[in-house]
Amino acid sequence: MKRRRTALLSLTALLGSALVGLPASQAAADEVEQVRNGTFDTTTAPWWTSSNVTAGLSDGQLCADVPGGTANRWDAAVGQNDLTLVKGESYRFSFTAKGAPDGHVARAIVGLSVAPYDTWFEVSPQLSVSGNAYSYTFTSPVDTTQGQVGFQLGGSAEPFRFCMDDVSLLGGVPPEVYEPDTGPRVRVNQVAYLPAGPKNATLVTDATTKLPWQLKNAGGTVVAHGWTVPRGTDASSGQNVHSIDFGAHRKRGTGYTLVADGEASRPFDIGTGAYDRLRLDAAKYYYTQRSGIAIRDDLRPGYGRPAGHVDVAPNQGDGNVPCQPGVCDYTLDVTGGWYDAGDHGKYVVNGGISTWELLSTYERALHARTGRPAALGDGTLAIPESGNKVPDLLDEVRWELDFLLKMQVPDGKPLAGMAHHKMHDEQWTGLPLLPSDDPQKRELHPPSTQATLNLAATAAQAARLYRPYDKAFAAQALAAARKAWTAALAHPARYADPDDGIGGGAYADSDATDEFYWAAAELYLTTGEKPFADHVLNSPVHTADIFGPLGYDWARTAAAARLDLATVPNRLPGRDKVRQSVVKGADRYLATLTAHPYGMPYAPADNVYDWGSNHQILHNAVVIASAYDITGGSKYRDGALQSMDYLFGRNALNISYVTGYGEVDAKNQHSRWYARQLDASLPNPPDGTLAGGPNSSIQDPYAQSKLQGCVGQFCYIDDIQSWSTNEHTINWNSALTRMASFVADQG
Ligand code: 9MR
Fold first, then answer.
1. Assuming Cys at both sites, which of 2, 109, 354, 746 could form a disulfide with 122, CB separation 3.0 to 4.6 Å?
2. Ordered DSSP codes for 279-305
3. Residue 551: C-alpha distances to residues 371, 559, 648, 728 (Å)
4. Is the pLDDT of residue 25 over 60?
5. Is residue 28 over pLDDT 60?
6. Containing H/E element for 144?
7. Distance 505 CA to ligand 1 centre (A)
8. Looking at the predicted structure, is the pLDDT value of residue 495 above 50?
9. What pLDDT sits at residue 487?
10. Residues in contact with 713: Cβ distance below 8 Å, sequence separation at least 6, in sequence order
């Protein structure tokens, strides 16, 4: 309704720009309205609707009747085409919107009006009857005259009425300066320091000379004091920082604060209880990720939900899944397994590393000096299988292993014995969407060498660990592993297509030598057979320097082999060298940690934080922890413990990246069903869910709208729309489970 000025340049804007010190050229850019008739005073033209939507004027707004029963957001829409956007220019996208009844979602996008319909900015606010005003700033990644503003309204079972007004796309606005609220400048592990462990903190300050610090107990009494150590400018944050070491104070307690430079830290504990709880919570994450089974509310209060993908409409089910067109002529029952992340896809590659890491958590407990297998034993995780006399962690992982085995190409079919790379929806779905509400067709994607070797490695590892509990399953797993190994040798270079990223992630990897090494190592550890030992010994990966700054992950799996060869008892010739290589890797990560003013074993080249950096930090910590398991050297134990501080708040954003832990925690992780930020009737992720963390490449539009130009640690935002910095996944929580278990064992 309201009239807008175009080419607006107000005095306050000028003054404001002068105040924040923008260059004159930027301050003087004209703000130009791109949307035509966003105010709906006399007509709805030139706005279009999809054919199933009826729109008209109502009280100077555009109102649309949206049908129920469509599958995707874009199945019902209102929009305007032929908008011009200029690459690198910032736009303010604003509108008011209402929806009746309450609770429906509009996906508001700015994108390309023709195929491939790229989206440059999107938000999915939940609408209310009373209405809200929305305003966002983003920077266009392209030059185009075929831009579109769209309001996608489909995907609802029920019809609803949508009204909008004052739709504007204003070009030439100053890029938004997003200022995260980082709280007190004294940064601590907000969860807990172990009484006998290291205790370090970081102070953000302008001071360049040492400052006094005080440790106060919950009653405010000073119980320790000392001096900070100036550390200069920290590359990972761009901040001038000091470090504080208060490790000499060992008294247990809650509600401690650390005071320096006139600021008091967020409160923290000195104790062990939090890590006993975290070990369980991090592993309990997997039950609520299960596909193919109803989640029981009595076991996870607030998280009960119907079974997903069990052939009940609107699901198309996972019981009878065809391949993508032209890929195969059979269907497979691939029910079960864990959903990968905030999406409903199931991927063998990523399932593989996650399975390995959870099994390794269990296997470490069997062999390490501080290991306690009972801590994740029967009855610890509150899962349906608790009480069956099998360790709960093995029961949980079995849910995924059974799925991985189902992904193997059946005998008699082309590529028999290989594993399909992944299975997921044909198209990406919107948020929120419970697994049981996903209407998309599910498809198997081509088999790959990497998926096949992930299956071989994890099934071989499973064979040795489940043998005491289920001989038949152990034998089945080993047979599947051998078959997969043989198939991979016959097809050593069938890689997943890096462009196969519609409806699910690509998980592409163009090097399988590390997966061959890993599968051979697991087969050797389980069978002791010479051909597998020979493959390990002849692999160039066996002697390669594999503990680089980035750390291992789903695509770089050599460390899985090296760590297991070093820590699981075996008679591999030259095993001492293998153990030394792990200790050498740990020494390097310790050196990184010691040099880092935030005390973490992660300093990627050019300060480029990787997708899921939080788990890379944990993985580097796993190498340090393994060096402790190998040598018993206390510096490795302390380094592994200190690595956790960053994740729990000793960081530039002063946030704990684990839901439910720390005074300020990440809790809006990108997820289709823990989507409380979009729908108040849904939960946040369960306690113990790790957020991906800072990602310098900020691939999602929401992060791009807020974090452009961010430095390292700042490339993160706790918003459900930020899938590139704030998702949760099975392969990140496995790293958390692995380290939480190590830390709990040191208490
Ligand atoms: O974690 C994955 C990251 O390493 C890749 O670079 C990225 C792009 O392929 O995909 C990430 O994994 C996502 C997957 O593709 C789909 N499910 C959610 C995963 C976590 O964001």
1. 109
2. HHHHHHTTGGGBSSSPBPTTTSTT--B
3. 24, 9, 20, 18
4. no
5. no
6. strand 144-152
7. 6
8. yes
9. 98
10. 236, 237, 598, 609, 651, 652, 653, 694
Measured by CA distance, the residue closest to atom 4 of ligand 1 is 611
pLDDT at residue 118 in the model: 85
Q: Per the residue annotation, which of 343, 629, 719, 745 is the catalytic one? A: 343
Tell how far the Cα of 484 is from the centroid of ligand 1, in angstroms.
24
- The residue behind tokens 């790959």 is 448
pLDDT digits (tens, 9 = 90+) for 172-212: 998 878 899 999 999 999 999 999 999 999 999 999 999 99
Q: How far apart are CA 43 and CA 62, in angstroms?
A: 9
Going from the C-alpha of 138 to that of each of 23, 120, 148, 315, 471, the distances in angstroms are 19, 8, 14, 35, 57
pLDDT 10s digits, 654-706: 999 999 999 999 999 999 999 998 888 899 999 999 999 999 999 988 898 88
> Does residue 4 surpass a pLDDT of 50?
no
* CATH fold group of domain 178-271+574-747: Glycosyltransferase (1.50.10)
Tokens, residue 74:
């874009």
Which atom of ligand 1 lies nearest, measured to the CA of 343?
17
Strand, helix or coil at 739? helix
Q: What are the residue boundaries of the structural domains of the chain, listed by start?
A: 48-171, 178-271+574-747, 280-543
Ligand 1 lining (C-beta closer than 6 Å): 340-341, 343, 345, 505-507, 611-612, 727, 729
Which residue in the list 122, 670, 719, 728 is annotated as catalytic? 670
Q: For residue 136, what are the β-bridge partners?
A: 93
| Ligand 1: centre distance to CA 616 (Å) | 14
Q: Three-state SS for 528?
A: coil
How far apart CA 423 and CA 442 sit, in angstroms, is 7
pLDDT at 15: 34
The CATH code that applies to domain 48-171 is 2.60.120.260
CA angle, residues 345, 351, 352, in degrees to nearest 5: 150
CATH number of the domain located at residue range(s) 280-543 in this protein: 1.50.10.10
- Alpha-carbon distance of 204 to 649, in angstroms, equals 13
150: alpha, beta or left? (left if phi > 0; alpha if psi -120 to 50): beta
Domains 178-271+574-747 and 280-543 belong to one CATH topology: yes
What's residue 6's pLDDT? 32
∠431-396-302 over CA atoms, to 5°?
A: 45
Over residues 539-566, mean pLDDT: 98
Task: Quick: pLDDT tens for 259-304.
Answer: 999 999 999 999 999 999 999 999 999 999 999 999 999 999 999 9
Q: Look at residue 177 in the predicted model and tell me its pLDDT.
A: 80
Pocket test for ligand 1, best of 339, 347, 349, 350 (most atoms within 8 A of CB): 350
493 CA from centroid of ligand 1 (Å): 22
How far is Cα 78 from Cα 107, in angstroms, rounded to an integer? 11
Q: Is-contact 181 259, C-beta < 8 A?
A: no
At residue 129, does pLDDT exceed 80? yes
Assigned token pair, 373: 């297998």
Ligand 1, atom 10: closest residue by C-alpha: 505
Whether residue 60 contacts residue 165, with contact meaning beta carbons closer than 8 Å, is answered with: yes
Q: Kindly tell me if the per-residue pLDDT of 12 is higher than 50.
A: no
